[in-house]
Amino acid sequence: MTGKHANKVVASIAEALEPLRDGMTIMCGGFGLSGNPEALIKGVVERGAKDLTLISNNAGNLGKGLATWLKAGIIRKVICSYIGTNDDLHTRMASGEVKVEITPQGTLAERMRAGGAGIPGFYTKTGVGTQVAEGNETKVFDGDEYILERGIFADLAIVKAWKADATGNLVFRKTARNFNLPAATCGKTCVVEVEEIVPVGSLDPDCIHLPGVYVQRMIVGAPYDKKIEFTTTREREVA
Fold this sequence. Notes:
Helix content is 19%, strand content 26%. The protein is α/β, with parallel strands linked by helices.
């Protein structure tokens, strides 16, 4: 994982997002507000791209993260697994402004993994007999019905990592690993926002979550506001 590869670090968001074009399909890592590539998300809006198809777990939340793309009116379609408290997506889906394709969460993760592995499709039981199965090919294996799901391969993947070396080997931090890892594998171009870049050879090979072969560009992000979506507390028990 420390082979002789070119330095993939770029100096600006504009350079990192140079492949960005109108009409692209963009894969974005993160889960809720955890592990969002915040600077890259902001950069997409600032560069004025529009008519985008977004693939992510939940397309932002509480008006933050990817919800800023919805507010900016640059999305035409969202493929996601959860819309929960995302009022920005609810509103635009109801009005017809944004087309929404909802995929079960585990199926979405597997569609990403399959796309990254070059697998065009796979069969799953998830969604059999529900609206998820409508319009999908089905097949019976050993007496059980399965749905054919397509692998996902995006034009551009933007993800957030904790540490990286200059060759693109990545380490994700705790739950921010979430969808960032499979998302990074299934984009024609993968751009990574990272908190820290360390010298080549300093990462323990056993601790690298994603090898640099999947990464084309990296940029060091600004200090992060570690957002918490919901804070639940209880009174301290007094002895």
